[in-house]
Amino acid sequence: MEIARIARVLLTALAVLTTGVAEAQQGKIPRVGLLVLGGPAPTIDAFRRGLGELGYVEGRNIVIELRFAEGQPDRVPDFTA
Q1: Most buried of 11, 31, 34, 48, CB within 10 angstroms?
Q2: What's the angle, vertex CA 8, arms to CA 24 and CA 43, rounded to 5?
């Protein structure tokens, strides 16, 4: 059951990223949603570093929307909606 929830989160993030790419082609800044199930610091830092390696700088050419489930998987559906 947990794997299915994680898969949904990843697919949602992919959909958000794809939407952001389409908007970027129209001159808008892409917006990416990041849902963190556990502790925020290492996950968010790694995510930002990865985006930086791809040339994205938060606030300049990408917007990151953070949501924290705080270890409560039952909060995931509300955040992904």
Answers
A1: 34
A2: 70
User: Is the whole model's pTM more than 0.90, yes or no?
Assistant: no
Q: Extract the tokens encoding 52.
A: 């930086």
Q: Which strand (E) or helix (H) includes residue 40?
A: helix 40-53
Sign of the CA dihedral with 64 first, then 57, 62, and 11 last: negative
Q: What is the pLDDT of residues 30-70, one digit of tens each?
A: 998 888 877 656 778 888 899 999 999 999 999 988 888 87
The pLDDT value recorded for residue 61 is 94
In this structure, are residues 35 and 13 in contact, taking their beta carbons and an 8 Å threshold? yes
Integer angstrom CA distances of residue 47 from 27, 29, 40, 70: 23, 18, 11, 18
